[in-house]
Design a protein that fits this description.
Number of strands: 7
CATH architecture of the largest domain: 3-Layer(aba) Sandwich
CATH topology of the largest domain: Rossmann fold
Number of helices: 11
Distance between the termini: 76 Å
CATH superfamily of the largest domain: P-loop containing nucleotide triphosphate hydrolases
Strand content: 5-15%
CATH class of the largest domain: Alpha Beta
Largest sheet: 5 strands, parallel
Helix content: 40-55%
Length: 259
Amino acid sequence: MEPIGNVIKQIVKQRNLGDEKTLENQALHDPDVQAFLKQNADKIDQKMIRNSMSNLYEFYSQKTHPNKVMVGYAPQLFLNGKVIDIRYAPTRAKIAQDRKKAAQRRLQLIDLPARLHDVSLSEIDVTDDRNNVLALIYDFLKKYKKDPHQKGLYLSGDFGVGKTYILAGLANYVVTNMNKNVIFLHVPTFIAGLASHFDDNSRISLQEEIRRLSECDLLILDDIGAESLSQWSRDDVLGVILQARMDNVLPTFFSSNLD
């Protein structure tokens, strides 16, 4: 192993940080290092500290001059046999970011803006018009947590009152806090696109799409009633999806301008 003095000199020279002895003392007197040494005083002696100086310095260095490669990870000290060692654990911010990315993968938006991924149910303004529907949604979530076989809701109201926004909050809550898979689709655009599946003779891909919508944990059909339904799209697509979800008691939510 390379002597600690040489290691510190090398790092100091590369980073132009100052005198190595000063930095050595700073590392040893770092509050987190001191707390660790005090917490493990019965297991640590001066020889172990000397042999672990490179790790203690790395810990201090990463705290004061973090390496960009380690963004999202924080250094931690731990006892590894006769040495004080260092490991890197994800920060709270990184854990939250990773959790958000995982949740976004569980929520698929079809023909809807990506910004709906950022809607939080807890941040939705509670108005007199929304009071009742939000109460029903929170009641659904309470029951859904205990039993996934629940009835969904049909939200009706004029354009622009916030139906899609509220359902986006519901979707994000479910994928983030319950680890469920949610599909949220804009019905008129989806139905209009079915013709291309049919014209291209892509019957298998259409059947796979129908199966996916039929089997996802929670399905949200946005703006239903605004589409132009043919007998085929009504009976062989939408009807099949809804029948399958009803048979398997899987919740489906709707928003519509029609009551």
